[in-house]
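Students often ask why we bother predicting the structure of a whole assembly rather than each chain alone. The short answer is interfaces. A chain on its own may look different once its partners are present, and contacts between molecules only exist in the joint model. In this exercise we take two input lines together and write out one structure for the complete complex. Read the inputs first and try to guess which parts will touch.
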Amino acid sequence: MARKAKRDRTVEEQLAHGPVDMPFLMLVLMLTVIGVVMVFSASYATALYDAKTAHNDPTYYFVKQAGFAVGGVLALYIVTKIDYQSFRWMSVGVLAASYVLLLLVFTPLGFGKATVGAQRWLKLGPINFQPSEIAKIGVILYFSARLCKRNTEKPKKLDPRSNLSGPIAFLRRIGFTELIPYGMILGSIAVLMLMEPHLSGTLLILLGGAAVLFAAGIRLQWFGVGLGGVAVLLLLMMAGYQSDRIKIWLDPWADPRGDGFQTIQSLLSIGSGGLLGVGLGKSRQKFDFLPEPENDYIFAIVCEELGLVGACVILFLFALLILRGFWIAIHARDRFGALLVVGIMTQMAGQVFLNIGVVTNLLPPTGISLPFFSYGGTALLIQLAEMGMVLSVSRQIPAAKSG
Amino acid sequence: MKNDKKRQKPDRNTNRTVLRRTLFLMAMCGVVSFVPLIYKLYDLQIRQHDELQARALDQQTWDQAVTADRGTIYDSKGTPLAMSAEAYYIQLSPNEILQRQKEYDDKVAKAGEESDPEKRAKKMPSYDKPTSESIAQHLAAILDLDEADILKRLAKTESKYEIIKTQVERETADQVREYASGNGLSSGIYVQPSSKRYYPNNSLAAQVIGWVQYEDNSASHGAYGMEAIYDDELGGKVGRVVTAKTGKGTQMLYRYEDYEDAVDGNDLHLTIDATIQYYCERILAEGIEKFDVQNGGFAIAMDPKTGAILAWANSPTYDLNTPRTITDPILKAKLEQIQNSNATDEEKSQQSTELLYDQWSNKAINEPYEPGSTFKSMVLAAALEEGVVNENSSFYCSGVAKVADWSIRCSKRTGHGAQTLAQAVANSCNPAFIAIGQKLGAEKFYDYLEDFGFLSQTGIDMMGEPAAPNYNIIWPRDRFTSANGLTNLATASFGQRFKVTPIQLLTAASSVVNGGHLMKPYVMDSITDADGNVIESTEPTEIRQVISEQTSERCRSILEGVVKPPGTGKAAYVAGYRIGGKTGSSETDAKDHTIVSFLGFAPANDPQVIVLLAYDNPKPVAPGANVTAGGWYISGGNMAAPQAGKLLTDILDYMGVAKQYTDEEKAVMDMPVPSLVGMSLTDAAARLKENGLDVRTEGEGDTVTAQIPAAGVSIPGGSKVILYMGAEKPTDKVAVPNVVGLSRTQAQEAMTSAGLYLKSTGLTIGSDVKAESQGIASGTEVERGTVVEVHFIQSTSSGGAGTGL
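Now the answer. The structure tokens for the assembled complex follow.
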């Protein structure tokens, strides 16, 4: 379609062409660059000693990650250009796609069972990715799109003669009926995810969805019910393979060569960093001590190389990014934008908290990546695309009334 | 409008709710959630930093000890007695070997994927799979180890540090290295440098030098002797190399290395002189064989003026290079006996170990013994110093002395009769010394025991000096000076019924002859660093002056008399060297077990060296007999004295001490025969007279045409040189007569009548001698005028077991 001249734009279109939020964009780019650099540093030794996939090329992971980062920034740019109002209708498609992909994981297209014991990945053509990444944003998009209309939708009139009208009216009054679709969506996705199993991903999806529900004004008691449900779920899972994780968490030194190994190596990495770190690229723990240093535990290498100071600077950037994201949410043009951004930012904050919590053994170990840092091309790409959505929302923020 | 209001109101409320909740989430996500994270990071990176860093470094680094070169031990002339040389130890890293084996499998698997057989062959490793079994087999063969044991070590796949053999020679180490590199095990089997101790003189001064014990981790420490006493100085400081390594144990990419240099040990210079040491050991071994000695013995040589130990020999002894091998013939026989006995293996190994302790034992300091008559030197010195006797004192010996209710017999049952002090000493007369002891009195006597250092350690820098005083082997003062102590005083006067260590005795005796100075004996002369700078050195230390210079001089002259006929020590006499000394025969608790000894010093006017030589337990030919199977009378004078005489001659010759001949000695000294052919008779006779030689002529000519013996041959002074004045010089050969057993005069006559010359060795003065051996066997055809050496010994025996001589 031909590009319209500025003056021919509708009000809607004019709004969608506002400036992106520069502080947010800058923070995203800074974290991306730092993240890619850290992937280079952290993966250096792994790649060097890996003859099979990396062919002993120390830049192997770096080049791939950098490529995806460029692609991700491109995706971010494209998404930024899209009027986020169109995400409303897209959301249904994304959610539907999430289901399809999550189901596909259990077909021969999925993999991961053999290597990490969990069927989390999907191989579609040349790219491998976790469908949960799509589901994460899908849930948020769909919930935001639906919940923003919460106050304007008129509930269906009940047939007073029906026997059920009494209980239904009660359920409505306490706000239960409106939760049914959301509960079903979250529940079904959680079941699919836990079948992989993918606990941390499930938690993040639940967190994203809950954040949107929370911000949209759902009665607080339902969160109590939700939290209780999650807690019961977690307790039930303790019995299985998760229970070992708790033991490791409480005392990683009990089995330093076995289950506690990764945690211990992570703590050693962080601890040896000290205040100022051993210097960029000079981590010793990445030399076959800390397993997969470029992945979930990359922040341990960051701590070792850059010290407490470096780690805090990065955490500060994350904090600024999150705060700025919420600032965008607050100033968003409409509720859909606000909820969307709240969902994305809360989910990201949760992911940062969980990752660093695991790496520092504040939380029991679980496989969760650090946004912008952990090696994983598609995850980074999707991450940047989500940031693009936030920026897209930021473009429609009404200019501050001057004077 | 109404409708609008209805719609707007809840929306505004909702807006407020949304804003409130968003702000809440904002605070939670953007601020609150970071607080525990940052706290946790602070906890790990600051508070637990040191501990975690140490743990991390521990796993990231490869800490290897670098052995320091152990210092060399030199004798006083700079001859190395103990030195270190390069050696290796073999270390396995089962963990890495396992990885090498896995890599091998990977390689084979990869090669198997290759379809082209040529390429496949190329990709296949060039060697067979290094299975644990094959590694164990090869290493066991190279290193002479147990295969099963190596397998056991290889099974410890968590370990990276299994030392399987230390002290490996270079050649063997090279073989191991070659095997490792040829089988892809260079990272897995390590050949690490260390050092090995060599003792170039094998058994020389074994108990003094000691040896080094190697531990599993290639560290070493001195186990005995100087190696143990000066272990810190000799050992140096072990260094470290810290190398960064990866989790798989390979070298890390970074050259992260930290060195802590090994500091080589310092060198030790001993006062021991290897040559004198050799003389002592030779004389000790010779006597042990000659006299059928059962329990070995010792010989110590010391500089009496300084206390510096010149030699310190023990028997039995062993090769320092193989300290756990028994080489002494007597101990070997015992070992065989143990092995052939029907004791259990445990008992056998325990008994064998005891034999090892026997050979490692340093008798001359570890084992106190009854000094016997050698102790009389100290009693004499004390009595002279206190003025209770003098050279004019006379003593009467009836052959027995009564003390309290006890009768104490003298060695000469018939008694020595009336004697001067010097004679009493020369006779080693027990009743005379009992009298001297009584004159001194118990209190004074005991004071001198203390002053001569018999109640304290000498303080020598040698291992195993027994704690002193030990009242189980020497009386406490109250038991000595009490009324009941009379017999104690009596037996102490001739050196019996108490025990001292040989070094205590020698130190005390030194003070008797060196002017009265009790010196602290020492073995370490100095310690130098690698550049030769002296770090520490021993200065002679005088503990106290026990007697005066004058008393010491009187003692020397009286003790010199012991070594002149008819003194008990006359067998130690050597012409030209003024030897003084005292014989001793010590009883022990066991029956038929005597320790014969001789304490000697020379020159008597200015002692340069003092020796104490003892043989422990010469075997009597039959129980209760006082001679050995070889016919040797068991006494210090008959056994230790002649050996000590030879020893002192060797030492004094070596030390270059000038000979001083008395006129009597000069008379029988060898003189070189000048060349006289062509001279007139008068000239020749005059010339011979100058050399103290006599003349006999054959023929009537004016000039000397030939002579016997030829010019340059040395013959005893006073012998006749035959000058042929034109007469034919006979060229026929003569047979050497048998002179063994003859007296000197008889031997002289036999030689002269055969046309031969006699040269006396051994006891060259005095008439109470007999020929013990001759240099040229009887019946041998020799040229006329040949000099035959004949060794004389005393013909009568005196002193002996049980008499304290």
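Check your guess against this: The longest strand of chain B covers residues 80-92.
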